[in-house]
Design goal:
heterodimer, A: 203 residues, alpha/beta, Glutaredoxin, five-stranded mixed β-sheet, two-stranded antiparallel ribbon, 9 strands, 17% strand, B: 724 residues, alpha+beta, Immunoglobulin-like, 19 helices
């Protein structure tokens, strides 16, 4: 019994060692994942374009803050309109909050008028662990060379109150704007905020 | 709706009742001090019954949670959000910041949150102004509360709470208060982190992957660190604690994306008994102190360390790495025997000075580099291929001179005359420097603890302890120079001295071979070509000096070749030298056991922590290929059939920490043991809270076997091990 927390710690250590967390400034880990239409997306095929990864869970109040207000949809429309590949990632395990089948997700996207390039289904959490995604939302921006240039929160108001959105600094838009202008990204890493990603085995 | 209501008074009444019963509306109509929301009840606690001018008291925000649900600490960890409070207070009453008791680690799969389960009260200091003038007989203290409560899912919540208290214009004769609320707040107030006592220190050092946090005054083998700053450490990583003689030391894994080292490491240190300290650790050299071997603080610790260093210095004369220098010293002794007694003494002191000065220089460099944040220990200079190349060249050139290719100041035949006298003193000084340099890779018995102590304390302590070490090293020769009897024992100077001089070149060349071997492991075979070419250039320079002694042209040529010789290996190390990282156990064959039956694994701090967490003891051999006493111990003791067998049977995990190259993890692990150099042998019991047993630097089979036998016997799971 006394050993239990120690063992847990050891298992966690092993897990954290095996996870190749994405590091800002390094090449973003490549991945292959299927979207809600059954199409396969490979990160390396998007070389030459900016890629945004958005972890989502439509039951999470923090994700809802940005979808119910229309903020996330506006960002998706704005940046895909400028040629950015926007990939929404669902890492909730089956049975957990935010888990969606392909058809459910397509219906949800239509209902909330979301406009990502694709919604990647990651029920095993493989992609989530590869990027060490912690919360929903958790945002990643990858430049045309495949380098990770931003990781962290969507904006600087870590709460679930939509009335804060108008006066929030959106870190994703800032990173994309700066990088596209050839400038260094001022804020390249923040603590992501929101609900924990509902990974398999996370109870 | 109005029409509907007019038509049906009953329906109107019903909807009115519904409106009244709906919690939000009830809250709006008459704010309560307590609200039950999904999965929790939140209450405002204001113990005093009266509010009056000049009063201070502690209010509280109480969360009672359903089983399994939690709210968050001020730094929520990987996800979540702490509760927040916004007060609406009558003028004259002010509220301080919400205070957060120490949280619990809440693991969620690969993530780690910090928060509270069951119940938590956040104390809030309140103050009533001295000029508080109640306009009404009652004061209403209202607050808007927001929170996030999570289990598998997260639910944000908010509530408006309020309570009223009598408002008085002057302090009452006998104030009354709600003792239940007061004691509840007091219970959590007692848990609040305390400032670290001023007599204690919190410092941290930085490695590429982790921080080492050292806090004194809290001697404890079990502690947890909760970071106040986000994105500084990896929240989910385990924090292996080590008890030190004066406190506790934690290894904190850095946040993968940490951009710049923090100025301070801010957070809470919570001990096993629940005591918590607020820590604002500053960067510094981690004080090495261990529970068993290193002398602890105080003047007795200092005198002990200095005494041990002195004895260690004397014994250093007998260690294998000093062996070649003993020949040089013997040579110097013979040379000195020709002189008057006062000259002998002078030579003894100059030799001592040579040792002292060279120790001081190395210690000064070491202290400066460590202050700059480098993880270095004793013998660090042997981790530099350039230094090794220069050492090898120096000894090779010396060997050439001794073998008779040319004459240098050390020459026996040029005795007498003022210039030769000066050269004689320079020679004695140089012999002292050489003795120190060659002695460094051998950490003799008693020296490990003393050096560890010295480097963990202030600069003057370091200098004092190393001076004691230097004096110990110099003492045998110095004593001989004062001993009149010994000179008569030696034969009269003659041809035999030339023979001895040439013979001395043999161990010198042997030392060169050893240095070249170490150099090759550090810098690779391509860089080795540069060093070998340098030897050729040295030989040519020596030929010029020997063939045309004293001729200006020849000396110039010799200097040219010498310069080339020095430049070549430096250039080849820069150009072809392998980067230091990949050198580990597999590329250091000299420090590895033969493959069959070898159970040694390369050391990592994680492997050490994991093995102990799995209930296995761990034996760590801290070694380096430039450390001769390490090689001797490994070959003669650790590879002995019976010792090997017992190591295998003990169930201990065998780790080899190869410190041939710089390795911050190994340096820190050594520091945690109170050591700063190799050889070090440590036996870690399976219980992570138990201190490691550090074995002496000179091993015997008995020492190893006794240490293994002294291990607490954990699960005797293997029936096959019943042979003993």
């Amino acid at each position: 019994m006394r050993r239990l927390p120690i063992l847990t710690a050891a298992v966690l250590a092993a897990l954290s060692l095996s996870a190749h967390a994405a590091k800002v400034g390094d090449p973003a880990p490549d991945f292959t994942a299927a979207d809600s239409h059954g199409q396969t997306h490979k990160l390396s095929e998007y070389r030459g374009k900016y890629v945004v990864l958005e972890w989502t869970n439509n039951g999470c109040p923090y994700t809802r803050k940005h979808y119910n207000s229309g903020n996330m949809q506006n960002l998706q429309k704005e940046w895909t309109g400028k040629g950015v590949v926007w990939l929404t990632v669902l890492s909730s395990s089956p049975g957990a909050q935010g888990y969606m089948t392909a058809s459910d997700e397509n219906a949800y996207i239509a209902k909330v008028h979301a406009d990502p390039t694709a919604a990647l289904l990651d029920p095993t959490g493989t992609l989530g662990h590869e990027y060490d995604a912690r919360t929903t939302p958790d945002m990643y921006v990858i430049d045309p060379n495949g380098k990770l240039i931003y990781a962290g929160a969507i904006d600087d108001h870590p709460n679930d109150d939509p009335s804060d959105i108008p006066h929030s600094k959106n870190y994703v838009s800032a990173a994309l704007t700066e990088a596209m202008a050839g400038q260094p990204v001022q804020v390249s890493y923040t603590r992501p905020y929101g609900c924990s990603v509902k990974y398999q085995g996370a109870d | 709706m109005p029409r509907l209501l007019r038509r049906s008074p009953l329906l109107a009444l019903l909807s009115l009742a519904l409106l009244v019963l709906m919690p939000e509306h009830r809250a709006k109509a008459e704010p309560s001090f307590s609200v039950t929301a999904p999965h929790l009840t939140v209450s405002l606690l204001v113990p005093p019954a009266e509010i009056y001018p000049g009063q201070t008291f502690t209010a509280g925000l109480d969360f009672r949670l359903e089983q399994g649900w939690h709210v968050y600490w001020i730094n929520a960890g990987d996800s979540g959000e702490p509760p927040a409070i916004t007060w609406k207070l009558p003028s004259g009453i002010t509220a301080g910041a919400m205070q957060f008791p120490p949280p619990k680690r809440l693991p969620l799969g690969p993530l780690m949150d910090f928060g509270y389960e069951n119940e938590v009260v956040f104390p809030i200091p309140m103050r009533v102004a001295a000029d508080f003038h109640p306009s009404q007989p009652e004061a209403t203290l209202a607050a808007h509360i927001t929170w996030l409560v999570c289990r598998a899912v997260c639910i944000p919540g908010k509530a408006d709470l309020a309570l009223t208290r009598s408002a008085l214009a002057t302090a009452p004769a006998s104030p009354t208060s709600d003792s239940t609320a007061q004691s509840l707040i007091a219970r959590f107030q007692a848990q609040l982190p305390k400032p670290l006592p001023s007599s204690d220190t919190a410092i941290f050092s930085s490695t590429p992957k982790s921080f080492l946090l050292n806090v004194t005054g809290t001697k404890n083998a079990s502690a947890q660190f909760f970071p106040l700053d986000e994105t500084v450490i990896a929240n989910a990583a385990p924090q292996p604690p080590v008890a030190t003689s004066k406190g506790v030391q934690l290894t904190l894994t850095k946040d993968e994306n940490l951009q710049a080292p923090p100025q301070k490491l801010n957070g809470l240190l919570e001990l096993a008994d629940g005591t918590a300290y607020e820590i604002h650790a500053t960067p510094g050299i981690i004080a090495a102190a261990t529970t068993n071997t290193a002398p602890s603080g105080g003047s007795s610790g200092f005198l002990g360390a200095a005494g041990l260093a002195f004895i260690g210095g004397i014994l250093l004369n007998l260690m294998p790495c000093v062996f070649p220098v003993l020949f040089i010293k013997g040579l110097a002794l013979v040379q000195s025997s020709q002189h008057e007694r006062h000259r002998l003494r002078a030579h003894g002191w100059v030799y001592t000075l040579g040792i002292l000065v060279s120790f001081w220089v190395v210690v000064a460099v070491l202290i400066v580099l460590r202050a700059a944040g480098r993880q270095l220990g004793w013998g660090f200079q042997f981790q530099s291929p350039t230094f090794l190349a220069l050492m090898a060249m120096l000894l090779f050139f010396l060997g050439l001179a001794l073998a008779g290719q040319f004459e240098i100041g050390l020459s026996l035949t040029s005795a007498g005359g003022s210039l030769a006298q000066k050269q004689g003193y320079a020679g004695s000084f140089f012999t002292g420097v050489l003795a120190m340099v060659v002695a460094t890779p051998c950490t003799a018995p008693f020296m490990g603890a003393a050096i560890g102590y010295a480097l963990a304390h202030s600069a003057w302590v370091s200098f004092a302890v190393f001076s004691a070490l230097a004096l110990g090293l110099a003492l045998p020769y110095l004593a001989l120079s004062y001993f009149p009897g010994w000179a008569r024992v030696l034969p009269k100077p003659g041809a035999w001295m030339e023979v001895l001089k040439q013979a001395v070149s043999i161990p010198i060349f042997a030392t060169v071979i050893w240095l070249v071997w170490v150099f090759t492991q550090l810098a690779g075979t391509t860089a080795l070509m540069g060093l070998l070419a340098a030897f050729l250039l040295l030989a040519i320079a020596g030929w010029f000096l020997g063939r045309w002694p004293g001729k200006a042209g020849a000396t110039t040529m010799a200097v040219v070749f010498l310069s080339g010789a020095i430049a070549t290996p430096i250039w080849s190390v820069r150009t072809f030298g392998v980067p230091p990282q990949p050198v580990s156990a597999q590329s250091a064959p000299g420090s590895q056991l033969p493959a069959p039956g070898s159970a040694w694994e390369p050391f990592t701090p994680t492997l050490l922590a994991q093995s102990r967490a799995q209930g296995k003891p761990v034996f760590v051999d801290f070694t380096a290929s430039w450390c001769l006493s390490c090689q001797v111990n490994e070959r003669l003791i650790l590879r002995r059939a019976d010792v090997e067998q017992r190591l295998r049977d003990s169930g201990a995990v065998l780790l080899r920490a190869d410190w041939t190259n710089q390795d911050p993890d190994i340096t820190q692990t050594l520091a945690a043991l109170g050591r700063s150099g190799v050889p070090t042998y440590a036996l870690y019991p399976a219980d992570p809270s138990a201190p490691a047993h550090v074995l002496p630097e000179v091993l015997t089979p008995g020492i190893v076997l006794d240490a293994l036998a002294a291990l607490p016997k954990p699960q005797q799971q293997t029936a096959a091990a019943g042979t003993e």
